[in-house]
Write a structure and sequence with these properties.
Blueprint lengths: L11 H4 L6 H7 L3 E3 L5 E11 L5 E7 L6 E5 L3 E4 L2 E4 L3 H5 L10 E2 H11 L6 H6 L7 E5 L2
Parallel strand pairs: 1-6
Antiparallel strand pairs: 1-2, 2-3, 2-8, 3-4, 5-6, 7-8
Length: about 140
């Protein structure tokens, strides 16, 4: 470097892509969500965040014609080519627990979603909500 300082080596953390902002996610509402093999799963209907820290937790997907929704772990959804992608089979998503897009989730609701997505006890979101009262609101709509 011209000023004599050395560039810091990149770490795995610094190479990790940044998650989308809430402004980006607001733009996603209505986008098609495709799964494995390019099959359409549904449409992005919103985002649920942790009720305590406000961090994104669930991508809400409208999977039925009457407004029926489910949620996919937010970290498992990516944007590209004018749509969203989720690494799941369409049928598996459609078998997930259902709720309304504007409905808050209780710890019990989230544990049911975690069980469906294979998030084991003591890991990820399961560990975050396991200590909460089953009827406590743990995730709220943000978008």
């Amino acid at each position: 470097m011209a000023d004599g300082s050395k560039a810091k080596p990149k770490t795995a953390e610094s190479r990790r892509p940044k998650p989308p902002s809430l402004d980006d996610v607001e733009y996603w509402v209505g986008l098609r969500v495709d799964g494995v093999g390019g099959r359409t799963i549904g449409r992005f209907a919103g985002l649920h965040v942790d009720a305590e820290d406000g961090e994104p937790r669930w991508a809400v997907v409208r999977v039925g014609p009457i407004g029926s929704c489910t949620a996919i772990p937010f970290a498992h959804v990516a944007e590209g080519a004018g749509r969203l992608w989720a690494a799941y089979e369409r049928d598996w998503v459609r078998e997930a627990p259902r709720f309304k897009a504007d409905e808050a989730l209780t710890a019990d609701n989230e544990l049911e979603l975690c069980a469906h997505w294979g998030i084991r006890d003591g890991y990820g979101r399961t560990a975050e909500v396991a200590h909460r009262d089953p009827d406590e609101i743990s995730a709220i709509p943000a978008v």
